[in-house]
Specification:
Blueprint lengths: L20 H5 L6 H12 L5 E8 L3 E2 L3 H11 L7 E4 L5 E2 L6 E6 L7 H24 L5 E3 L10 H11 L3 E2 L2 H4 L12 H6 L4 H11 L6 E4 L6 H12 L3 E6 L24 H13 L6 E5 L4 H9 L6 E4 L10 E8 L2 E2 L14 E2 L2
Parallel strand pairs: 6-7, 6-11, 8-9, 9-10, 10-11
Antiparallel strand pairs: 1-5, 1-12, 2-4, 3-5, 3-14, 12-13
Helix pairs in contact: 3-4, 4-5, 4-11, 8-9, 9-10
């Protein structure tokens, strides 16, 4: 963590981000017109002193601000020539509210608009979606499981955005790296298959060979019999078992549900299936075994489960965290001390912005 002044919250140290600084300074990731802008300003020896403000248009949870500040700190032509004020990762923000202002010679940072806005847009989308899921779950743990749905290069920052928004765990070490944690997960279908489809054997071998402090959660839908498999795994692992994860595909009907077929097609992980697994575990003397529900869960589905008081202890959520658009805009609003902005825009004061040392 970087140091913070009196009354200020800590920000992530720029070294955490492992930025390709030389390429950023060269404009490699910048829209070409910003690089052309720098060329014009330099050749014309024009040095406008500007104020730029950055905002977006939705109620959201801010993500990526420390990363954006580090882009400015390491990628600008001269950080000491800039005055930067910003909010913090995890802050609730309103439409049109400035989250960042940059003041100084425009030629020092013109090439950074593309990367700054991109970082803020991506991380704010993740943070906002995570917060909405966390709120829908009413305090139950949310596990961040979207790594397989996007490029690996985005994992580190997305994991941090999920963390500041309230996710209790992430699935890869990369996602957890910025705050010094590790990825968490379950005994996967692939390991079960590697042991011939024997979930109990795979779970037993997992418990035998992983670190003792790993909380063991086992996927129990491999044979499409969540009740039977959950009981078998609990009997084999006892207190070593932290939880069972229900992940029945949304086109499948667990065999435990077949007696309910007359009431409609109860496909996937349903409230009824969760209740059956909970009741079976309790009756068999395994009340400590938690139930994790995953597979197509989003804000609406979690809210419905919570409204129905479904006995789920945690939710695993994946691609739903990448939905929506949270596009940021940067406007120059003052030049050489005078108001100057495109039609329809103006400088928006904010008492919440704090100076960045």
């Amino acid at each position: 963590m970087s140091s913070a002044g009196p009354g200020r919250r800590e920000r992530l140290d720029p070294g955490v981000f492992r930025l390709p600084v030389l390429k950023i300074r060269q404009g490699y990731y910048s829209d070409a017109y910003f690089n052309h802008t720098l060329t014009v300003l330099a050749r014309d020896r024009h040095h406008p002193h500007v104020v730029m403000q950055v905002f977006q248009r939705r109620d959201a949870v801010l993500g990526g601000i420390d990363e954006a500040i580090s882009l400015l700190r390491l990628g600008s032509r001269r950080w000491s020539g800039l005055t930067v004020r910003a909010l913090y990762d995890g802050d609730d923000i309103e439409p049109w509210e400035p989250v960042l202002t940059i003041e100084g010679d425009y030629g020092l940072f013109a090439h950074l608009e593309t990367v700054v806005l991109g970082v803020l847009s991506r991380r704010t989308k993740v943070a906002t979606n995570v917060r909405r899921v966390v709120e829908a779950a009413r305090g139950k743990p949310i596990i961040f499981f979207p790594a397989r749905f996007d490029h690996h290069a985005v994992q580190t920052g997305d994991g941090w955005a999920a963390h500041v928004a309230g996710a209790i765990g992430v699935s890869t070490d990369a996602q957890a790296s910025w705050w010094g944690a590790r990825g968490i997960g379950t005994v996967p279908h692939a390991l079960i298959a590697a042991y011939g489809g024997d979930t109990v054997r795979a779970a037993t071998k997992f418990a035998e060979h992983v670190d003792p402090d790993v909380q063991i959660t086992v996927l129990v839908d491999f044979d499409n019999d969540c009740v039977g498999t959950a009981l078998a795994v609990a009997s084999a692992l006892g207190r070593r078992l932290w939880g069972v994860r229900l992940d029945t595909a949304q086109h499948m009907i667990d065999r435990s549900m077949l007696p309910l077929m007359g009431e409609g097609p109860p496909c996937g992980v349903t409230p009824e299936l969760c209740r059956m697994v909970r009741a079976a575990l309790d009756e068999a003397g395994f009340p400590w075994v938690r139930i994790v529900a995953s597979g197509g869960f989003d804000v609406e589905r979690i809210a419905a489960f919570e409204a129905a008081r479904v006995p789920v202890d945690a939710y695993g959520v994946g691609s739903a965290f990448f939905r929506g658009r949270f596009d940021f805009t940067a406007d120059i609003v003052r030049v050489d001390g005078r108001p100057c902005a495109k039609a329809g825009r103006h400088e928006q004061p904010s008492h919440r912005l704090e100076p960045v040392a």
